[in-house]
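Q: Given only this backbone (166 positions), what sequence would you predict?
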């Protein structure tokens, strides 16, 4: 039986619920296009989306409006990546928010996880752009579509009125 083809929208905060929704579609559909409008969220859930979407060979990612932080990971998983002209990209090192009343041991473990996540996100980003592009983007932190194109985050900017399909 041939899988049905679908487009998905990732909007709002990246979370375990986002991963669950994409997983639900990916089990019975071939994902053709991923539209992303998200301020980011959990880096771990962003990496789960990256791993999940990397399994689709011909997926096209399109950033619309806002594609920041953890939302960059599912975009980078796509074979071809585009954005609209007025999309804003936010780039930063992942960080952990300290838990209230955490012990010193929990804080040390949190620091180790944070370092591991930072290394994985850095590795994913450099794989799809370059080390010099990653470093330059990190210094700028807020990018417009032209910056994202220059740094290799996207492959092109969608002209107005154009629908992007794979």
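A: Predicted residues:
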């Amino acid at each position: 039986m041939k899988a049905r083809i679908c487009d998905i929208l990732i909007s709002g905060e990246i979370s375990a619920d986002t991963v669950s929704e994409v997983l639900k579609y990916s089990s019975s559909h071939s994902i053709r296009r991923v539209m992303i409008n998200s301020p980011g969220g959990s880096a771990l859930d962003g990496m789960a989306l990256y791993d999940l979407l990397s399994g689709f060979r011909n997926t096209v990612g399109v950033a619309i409006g806002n594609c920041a932080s953890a939302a960059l990971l599912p975009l980078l998983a796509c074979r071809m990546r585009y954005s609209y002209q007025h999309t804003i990209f936010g780039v930063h090192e992942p960080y952990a928010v300290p838990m209230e009343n955490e012990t010193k041991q929990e804080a040390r473990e949190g620091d180790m996880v944070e370092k591991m996540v930072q290394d994985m996100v850095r590795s994913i980003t450099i794989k799809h752009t370059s080390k010099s592009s990653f470093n330059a983007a990190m210094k700028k932190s807020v990018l417009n579509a032209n910056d994202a194109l220059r740094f290799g985050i996207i492959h092109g900017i969608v002209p107005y009125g154009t629908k992007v399909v794979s």
